[in-house]
Amino acid sequence: MPSAIGAVLLVSAALPLAAQSTAPLGELAKKEQDRRKTVKAPGKVYSNKDLPAPPEPAVPSGTGALPPATTTETKQDAPKPPPKDEKDEAWWHDRVVQARESQRRNEAFAEALQSRINALSTDVVNRDDPYQRAKLAEDRQKAIAELSRVTAEIEQAKKELAAIDEEARQAGVPPGWLR
Questions:
Q1: pTM higher than 0.85 for the full model?
Q2: Cα–Cα distance between 26 and 16 in angstroms, integer?
Q3: For the structural domain made of 89-178, what CATH number should be given?
Q4: Measured by CB atoms within 10 angstroms of the end CB, which terminus of the chain is less buried, N or C?
Q5: What is the pLDDT of residues 23-50, one digit of tens each?
């Protein structure tokens, strides 16, 4: 019985293969090329040459100033840029927040590095294979070097925060702006 089912499947799978065209691929390509020659293009293709030239902008005469209507529209639409030396509450607040965030990120990274160093130290002691032990010791040394770099960045961030506080004090900035 299983051989009968297999024979039926084999015959049914072969039928679609026999129904395929046996025409050579070259003949099919030639027919497609002839068909494309007879098909008319769908429409006109436009290029930059077909488009009209843009109008030239009007040049104000004499004073070199814009016409009054354009000047008032420009003043209403364009926001006034803040003076470069203006250090308002938002500027001071953003500066302190960025410095504190940098310090916080570095401290979190230092904690993660310390955890990695502790895990690597444990792994070094517990490995029997000298090659694995050497590789783990090398990774631990890299983590220790990275920890010392991050610790230096934390100290730098603390100094930067102190400098910001001192600069704000000398500038007469209210303490509430630095919170």
A1: no
A2: 22
A3: 1.10.287
A4: N
A5: 688 888 888 888 888 877 666 777 777 8
